[in-house]
Structures
1.
Amino acid sequence: MADESLAFMPATELAAAIRARHVSPVEVARAALDRIIRSQPTLNAFITIAEEQAMDQARTAEAALMRGEPVGPLHGVPVAVKDLVPTAGIRTTWGSMIFKDHVPDADAIVVTRLKQAGAIIVGKTTTPEFGQQCLTEAPLFGRTRNAWRDDRTSGGSSGGSAVAVASGLIPLAVATDGGGSTRIPAACNGLVGFKQGLGVVPQEYAQDGFGNISYITPMTRTVADTALMLSVMAGPDLRDPLSTGRPPGNFIAAASPDGDLAGLRIAWRSRLGNHAVASSVSSACAAALGALAELGANVTESTSPFENPESVWFVNNGSYRRAQFGHHLERHRAIMCPTFVRQMDRVASYSAAELYEAIFARTRLYRQVQTWFETADIVAMPTLSRPALPIDQDFFGPIEIDNQSVENIRAAWYPYTMPFNLTGNPAVSLPCGFDAAGMPLAIQLVARPGEDERLLRVAALFERARPWVDRRPPV
């Protein structure tokens, strides 16, 4: 099968082709690795390419197939893993010079599950140091460029995973999302960015198992591929208290694009405490809402007051990361990312009382957001206030929205993503068009806690109405 056909084949179709022996796991892995290696000088989406390990896995997968052994749902499918997620025998650096030679002894449980399902782990994708930036860049590897234009950022912190999938290097990637880190790069690169509800996918290595706001997620081109990944990754693990007692849902069935949205109530919110939204984003989201209405949904506008959550997120997340990584500043400050260092220095003086006030504020935010669902089943909003930023964007500088300078990149660019890390609501970013420069635009849909399957169904029906997978970046 031609490499171009393999490059953009959805994982659902690729897995079926492998099971039917229309294409071999070795052929698929070799083609993916060749694409990754060729792309590195331009896209720079990988920190580590696990070529030898991947080919060994592929040969084992092919032998099992030829023997007629039972195979898993991802048998022979190449998958990349963000370099914040531990992988046994494959370097895991957290995007940091401090850990440039670190090789874990054990896989994270999601990696174990992917391997058990037959996935071939081809390498580790780029992340800013410790994932603490919405722009994927770090002293360890440089910058990861957007799949659509090399003068734009990939977004972050899962920029490498997003670019690798969007560019057809691989069909699936593992991402993480602590404030939008899946949904931001998905929006920047024209992908499905699904942040499932709290506890759906376990994170057994999280140091705060009770107050964690970061999620391990799929990064895919299609809703069906997201459902396929979730079906493998989800399910309880006793080491993660937020996951216990939460059996995995029937995600694959939920993502079947059958029927319509008759009776579904969608509330549109154009702002979440921010003041500026690009006209291209507003127009694309209006068209997306029109498509949802044509499917039968009842779309109304919600204008209830909402305060920008950036300060609450910043104290919760910053205090967590300072406790987690701050000790490295004493010994390694000189080789650490200056942006990360500056962020950690900004939270160093917070008191325990200030942290707990932010924790209390998180609870108040949760309760406020859930009131939205008294009159709505889905809440819709932009994913980002504007398309992908310039590749050389200063993290601490203003951003430009329709020729207007706006301060605070977190509060101004992605106020729509942070709240739902704090509340635990499932949220998905879906492609909904392109701007005049050819950059992807996205709409975000949010559901009640526990309604991941409903969210997948709405996303699948929207994808059927407004398909995006055939439009590909000029790689």
2.
Amino acid sequence: MDSLFTAAEQCLAACEIEDKLCLTQQHAQAWRDGQLSLDSNAEPRSIGEPGHPVKPELVSPGDVPRRGLGSDAGRAAMLHAVTHIEFNAINLAWDAVYRFRDMPRQFYSDWVRVADEEAYHFQLLRQRLNDMGYDYGDFPAHSGLWDMAQRTAFDPMVRMALVPRVLEARGLDVTPGIMKRLKNVGDDESVAALEIILRDEIGHVEIGSRWFKYFCDQRGLNMEQTFLDLIGKYFAGKLRGPFHYDARIKAGFSEAELRALEQLGGNS
């Protein structure tokens, strides 16, 4: 029987978009069908960069052009940025599967599911770009999304705290505002795609919250204090509000955590 870890490595290594999507869907189904084992004869290797297509051009976050939503090109550029996040989220989910060994079986089921759903999100947004006359790769995108995967590769607890509960949770905060702006310019098709993505992303962040709590409980750590300590170490001065309370509560945040986040980032 093939190994889930080998399957995850194949998904991470795939450079062509269709290859990464196809492998993700095939391996996710194989895992659900019980066709992949958790056997591994090798330690996970360090992955400097996952496979990605030649385009989009990757630039620093500050060099990604800002555009308004009043034009087709502006809306396409904004959707392209979200599409790029979803593409990277496929890699982040597979890396959680590949990187962390000897976890409960449910850990792998959860993150395989996330990878599969992120691939679906990417396809939804790419189709929307295509409908507007654009494609993924037509705009530059920022290169910093993989950085946190590398910085948290040493500890699954730290990964669960900082990728789902900080980076992905930010999407819960900003997506409703994007949807409102798109609705105001009559782009109901893009709003419909983002509604699906927001619903699923609440579930993805909740998975991160659940496993972060699991690791904290396992190590006898206070979840709320540990989360704030990790934010202080990795994100000092970088968190921004406002925070989408309802979505974050559904995603496993406590009221105390949200109050602490308000103090750190406020409604700036």
